[in-house]
Structures are given as C-alpha cells and as structure tokens.
Design goal:
The protein has 343 residues and is of the alpha/beta class. The protein contains eleven helices and eight strands.
Length: 343
C-alpha cells in the first residue's frame, strides 16, 4: 500500500504565520467550492443530467487552491481533462462550469466543450487538454511569448503522474530549461496513472521530482493535500519565473477519492488505502489549520454555508437553462487558415 508521507499541521497560532488570515480564508474557500461543485457534478451524473464521463479532483483540491491563490492577474493555467478544479480556482463561476457539464446554453462554452475541454481566456484558463502531455509544449509557447515581450506573466501547466512517462514531458522540460522560460510544471501525483500504480512502471520513486536534475532543476516534492505547503511552493516558483530564473518542476503528492473517471470503480486499490488517505483529507486538514490560527468556528461554518448556497443556486439555474441552439453547431470549430488567423 502506498505510504502517506510525514505530515503535520502548522505550528500553534502566531508561529510561522507567513501566509496570513486573508489568504488562508481564500485557500479554504477555493477548496470547499471545488469539493462542493464536483460532488454536485457527481450527483448530477447519477441523475443523468451530466452526459458522458467526467474526471473529478475530489481529494486533490489543495493543489488547485494553492497555485491559484498565489497567482497574479495575467498568469495562465493549462489543465488536463481533470480540469474542473483549476477552472473553478481561477474564478470561473460555478454556474458556468456546471452548465457546461450539463450541456446547457449557460455553460462556459455554451455546452459545446463539455467536461474535458473547459476554457476561459478571460480567467486565464487556457484550455483543458484530453491528450496526455499535449499542453506542456503549449504552456512553453505561452511562456516564450511572455519572455519575448518582456511581460511578467507566468504559465502553469498541471498534469498527472502518468504524463511523466510521455515524451512531451521531457521535451517540454528540456526546452523550458534551455530557454529559461517563465513556466511552472506541476505534477499532481495521485499514485495512479488511470488504473495502473505509477510505481509499477516507473524507475524512480517520484516520477517528476526525481527526474528534475536531468534538466538542471531542483527536486521539489510537497504535500499536495496541504494547501499551505502548496501555496508556499507555488509562491517561490512564481517569484523565480518572474525574476528570469526559469522554470520549476513541482511534484505534489495527493490522492483522488474516486476512480479515474466515472466509468472506474477503482477496485484495483489496496484495501484500506483510500481510508488512510481520507484521514489526510485536504479540507479536513485545513479546517483544523484555520482553528489553529485563531479563525472562529462561525467564520468557517459561514464559508461552508455560503458555498453550498451558491452551488445550489447554480444547480437550479443550470437545470432551468435551455440546451444550446443548433445554429451554433459549426461555430468556433473551423479556422480559415488565412493571415488573420495565423496572426
């Protein structure tokens, strides 16, 4: 059974408080919003209101929250098919995400993209990519653009542990390191590449971090269920990128509570593994963290209630929303390949 590595709550209130109450409350709110919205997506699937499949981040919320809270306006996120969490973390309204999953006209892309292709340039979400590893070179391109223009935005691409055995992972890392691009590669290591334990098919214990030295990068492994640890690692990586120090590769150790997708009952997991990881549930951990730093129970309960209310309201709006009209079926599908498109 996979080992849950050493983890501890933060010191008592007033010690090591480099993050601050405002940011901690934001980190907690983002995590709760992701949890509630994705749980609602799960429930809607069972009601046959979400078609096809979906890939949830239940249990992995701290990674999206930590990196999003440390971002600045203009920074760009590149996600995988498991992109609901990162899309919500960047501020996309719950209604827009659930509407897209439900194929409604009020969805983020008017119901045409679905679960695996969430995109919102307005919020810095530059696409969710269903092809494993496809977005890593694209993130490098966005970072190269920022470097060329002298802007200070940073590209961040999130991917699973299985991506580390894809050629695009190594090509993108090498390219980014050679050109010192302002890009951050974030491996969400949830121990499984779909149905196969990553450790069974990879020569190193940490598939991302243990390969960092090959590209002249430091080995960075963080507790991906601890939003504070993720936030600190993200902040340092952003600062390095903005100062011209080049890319970072961060491996976040986490665990998905459900199967790879809705079609996966996850029966391949060893008995007791899920229960062990749920003892280190990121939201449970962070509630205790807030209390340690003197946040009142009423404040925490207020955030919980407000998020549930907004998820309920978004759900009802999506249920009442119409399906997209047929006249948009072929819009935003084809490019003419002309000068205007290329430039």
């Amino acid at each position: 059974m996979a080992k849950v590595e050493d983890r501890a709550l933060a010191p008592a209130a007033g010690l090591n408080d480099d993050i601050g109450e405002e940011t901690r409350l934001l980190l907690y709110r983002i995590q709760v919003e992701i949890r509630e919205a994705e749980q609602r997506a799960f429930d809607l699937f069972l009601q046959n209101l979400v078609k096809g499949t979906s890939h949830l981040s239940l249990g992995q919320e701290a990674v999206a929250a930590g990196f999003a809270a440390a971002m600045k306006p203009g920074d760009l996120s590149f996600c995988t098919y498991r992109g609901h969490a990162h899309t919500l973390a960047r501020g996309v309204p719950i209604e827009k995400v659930l509407g897209e999953l439900m194929q409604r006209d009020n969805g983020l892309m008017r119901g045409k993209g679905g679960s695996m292709h969430l995109t919102s340039a307005e919020h810095g979400v530059m696409g969710s990519y269903a092809i494993i590893g496809a977005h890593l070179p694209i993130a490098c391109g966005a970072a190269w653009r920022a470097q060329y223009k002298g802007s200070k935005d940073v590209a961040v691409c999130f991917f699973g542990d299985g991506t580390t055995n894809i050629g695009a992972f190594h090509e993108a890392l090498n390219f980014a390191a050679v050109w010192k691009l302002p890009v951050i590669f974030v491996c969400e290591n949830n121990l499984y590449m779909e149905y196969t334990p990553i450790g069974d098919v990879t020569a190193v214990a940490h598939p991302a971090a243990d390969r960092a030295a090959s590209y002249g990068l430091p080995r960075i492994v963080v507790d991906g269920n601890d939003a504070d640890a993720v936030y600190r690692a993200a902040s340092a990586a952003y600062a390095k990128a903005r100062d011209g120090g080049g890319p970072s590769l961060v491996e976040c150790m986490t665990y998905r509570h459900s199967g790879h997708s809705r079609a996966d009952p996850a029966k391949y997991r060893p008995e007791g593994e899920l229960e062990k990881w749920k003892e280190h549930d990121p939201i449970k951990l962070y509630r205790e963290r807030l209390k340690q730093f003197g946040i009142a129970d009423g404040v925490i309960a207020g955030i919980d209630a407000d998020v549930r209310r907004r998820v309920d309201e978004a759900t009802e709006k999506c249920k009442a929303a119409p399906m997209p009209p047929l006249d948009i079926l072929t819009t935003d599908v084809y490019a003419d390949g002309g000068f205007a498109w290329r430039n």
